[in-house]
Amino acid sequence: xxxxxxxxxxxxxxxxxxxLTYTIRLFYVQVIDDRYKLDARNQAFRYVTDYPPRGFVYDxxxxxLVYNQIAxxxxxxxxxxxxxxxxxFCKLLGITQDSYIRKMKIAKSAPNSPxxxxxxxxxxxxxxYAALQEKLYKFKGxxxxxxxxxxxxxxxxxxxxxxxxxxxxxxxxxxxxxxDGDYIGVNGIEKTYEExxxxxxxxxxxxxxxxxxxxxxxxxxxxxxxxxxxxxLTTGLDEEIQALGEQLMVNKRGGIVAIDPTTxxxxxxxxxxxxxxxxxxxRERSHNYGMLxxxxxxxxxxxxxxxxxxxxxxxxxxxNGLIGQQEHxxxxxxxxxxxxxxxxxxxxxxxxxxxxxxxxQQAVTQSCxxxxxxxxRSIIDQKKFSTTxxxxxxxxxxxxxxxxxxxINSDLPHELKGMxxxxxxxxxxxxxxxxxxxxxxxxSIGQGELLITPLQMANIMCIMANRGYYYVxxxxxxxxxxxxxxxxxxxxxxTLIEKKYFDIMVDGMEQVVQAGTGRIAKYDDTTHICGKTGxxxxxxxxxxxxxxxxAPKDHPKIAIAVVVxxxxxxxEVAAPIASLLIxxxxxxxxxxxDLEKKMIEKDIIHGAxxxxxxxxx
Amino acid sequence: xxxxxxxxxxxxxxxxxxxVFLGMLALGWGNIYSAVYDEDHPVILDMTQKYGKQLxxxxxxxxxxxxxxxxxxxxxPTFAWIIYGVSMVSxxxxxxxxxxxxxxxxxxxxxxxxxxxxxxxxxAVCLALAKYLSDINIKMSDMKTRLRAFGxxxxxTLLIFLEKETGCAIILLIxxxxxxxxxxxxxxxxLSLAMAFLFFVAVxxxxxxxxxxxxxxxxxxxFLAKKKLxxxxxxxxxxxxxxxxxxxxxxxxxxxxxxxxxxxxxFLGIETDKKDKAWNENESIIAIGSGGxxxxxxxxxxxxxxxxxxxxxxxxxxxxxxxxWGFLGSTFIVCLFAFLIIRIILLxxxxxxxxSRIYGYGVASILLFHxxxxxxxxxxxxxxxxxxxxxxxxGGSSLWAFTILLFIFIKLDSQRLMILR
Lengths: 617, 421
Prior knowledge:
Mean pLDDT of chain A: 88
Low-confidence stretches of chain A: 608-617
Number of strands of chain B: 3
Number of helices of chain B: 15
Distance between the termini of chain A: 133 Å
Structural class of chain B: mainly alpha
Distance between the termini of chain B: 14 Å
Strand content of chain B: under 5%
Largest sheet of chain A: 6 strands, mixed
Number of domains of chain B: 1
Order of helices and strands of chain B: HHHEEEHHHHHHHHHHHH
Oligomer: heterodimer
Radius of gyration of chain A: 34 Å
Strand order of the largest sheet of chain B: 1-2-3
CATH architecture of the largest domain in chain A: 3-Layer(aba) Sandwich
CATH class of the largest domain in chain A: Alpha Beta
């Protein structure tokens, strides 16, 4: 027997000890510690984003307003881009060697990285793509990613439709859905309905080897998620009206908003000067944006329909007439004198020549300043109020109920509040208790500190058309094929004025077009347009021409507000434009071709049209 | 004594070991196929691919196994010294006639095929050691015997080290375990291990501080031990040896091939080069760790198949096992090797001849060290030393060398009843 026989147990023990140690270590590495699984994924998986096509936008009649065009982004992973025939490459791409070096440098430096694919050339044309595609195999590290860019077939509605732009760091940090290089709606409908339009990005897991060459999908795409295309939107816009409105506003500054009073759907919203929405698309976007941004004269990026502050002028008399009736200080038969102005304050504010005294309906028709000064003061200075301020507060509450001085909360971004001064505002200006109804009497005729937007003016017309209420104005009708209603706009928003007081005002408005200051707006005998002219005084220059209307008188279908800056009388430019739009909307054609031509050709911006200096109507 | 059956060369063969051997070849090939697998080359017999070539190597290995089984067992002790001599000559010759591969001249080239003499040195040394120690007049307690046995091991170790095949060279040192089994005192084994450990520590720590530490340790042992001159000499000699290793470690380390130095540096934490040599280690543990409990499934590995793990079909073949078969599969392989090695130890213990027993322990020790280092380096328990996993890794030389190593023992074992050496 071998004397060292016992030592075999040490050997066997050693083998078992090693096996046990390794098993424990393997258990730790493979079962307990998850770190390596993550590392493996990061190395061997590439998560490729599948960009869905963005949803189209249609008008109320099914006409296409926005669709997509395919764009080709040339991507590069700098580390893989070796032995590139730069001469051929630059020739195909139409760039210089210097710009190749510069672009490569950008692709290599933060936030890009030499081992990460980033955009080398944005949105190549189809021709460039076709030429490059054949030779692409020669350029290692380069590949083409297709994307969609927006296209606007009619070149209209730039402000309404908005545009899309690349997300910035702010967005990517707040919202995990977005990553660098993604696009997001920046303005207009694109912004408001981003979530419906964008669809949902999909992800494909692609396996790569150590050289970053793709090796096919992971487990036959079991863990891939398909992208969901964006849904299309049907809007309440009328493409023809929008187009006509933009045409009519050529060479003029101002805003037009038309609303369907029975639903609150915005039929058109025009801001002039406007721009071709196709400018803010694709690789020329930032250049064009800069160009539009630097146009400080026309300010084309400024959406006057929603943001333009204008004194409502005489159109505001309607509201004072209604408040007076509701407060029982004004009755249809109430008559006030006029002496080419408000006699109590020595003929200020002034008025034009007309018969006197007038009753309420006549005062609306003739747009008598004096009449509404009396009305306004009788509201504020009622005996039941102990101070002017108290009376003013009551009056102001009525005004606010018309959707002025606050946001109406439409579905368009950047809507502004307008301005109805608070008592505190006057306290600050005149001193507490230092102002009387006479101090602020210009509010009675829509002047003074009062400022409202065209959208709010059009909304007031909806209130008149509906005799007392409005639906919140909005662009969206439905989403997707199923015509899904994603927001309930059917709630009626009542003013503080009872319905019965509206009839007399509406009659007055009817007479404005039939026989008053807005006669030019009448286009045939059967359709009764109810309107009100306004000539808003403007401390910076010529008066703004304002016209608000709805039609027909019974069962109204359209409410409209037109503001043309520095164009003088309401009846001169705003009323004909509003009238043409109403005619087109209600009859689908325009009989008064000469008037249409005249209005289109009217150039107010370039001084070709010199406005007569007159007092307001 | 039972009457020996001489009717068949396959009688008395330990079929369990043979089955484990065949099973490992099959599993090894399957994993090589997966590691190299490419949708473009799905044909198994594609000779342009490594799995195709490996089939040739396996065929060769089976032929070699058969040849060894038909050669009489008496051949091996008889020709042990000649085989050892030829092996040493080839180790020297390769330095002059060999083809340089990756900085080391250790391969003979015959057309497309290469032979690495270092691989075949393993069984040669085992045979020589068995032959020397099984001599009836040899006693392990003699200092002369110890030194000669060490010499048999150290000669090829040095030759291979000079070829800059550090990994292969270190393997042979494990044969000190065989000496232990044959009676080398335990403290000498521990001392050897301590010296080896000291070598690596000396690469990291300042030498003077280590010398102080060793001196204090020696002093402590001196006071605890019996006050005999013999002990005093031993402790003094140990201290001198330790000091030599401490100061010799750095220069010796500098002689290591560049990639080896870097691997050891990374393992010892001196360097943290994630992109370069540590790459191997990080990638291998990522591959294994990502396998999880039950693995990603056969041919579903990403880290090994897509070349994140370099040499996934050779030295890092265990990564494929770990990634595709998970904890279950890799534990199975670990247990399979443990089973094989213990089986060989038990077989060695039942030998009547010392030659067979000593040779068997040689086989077991070499297999154990290969498995310990190869699997250990993939899971970061051992520095990366480029040695193959027996029967699994791609490559002809190592497969044939292991086959020869194992089957000589199987043959010796099958004739254990006939011969009393």
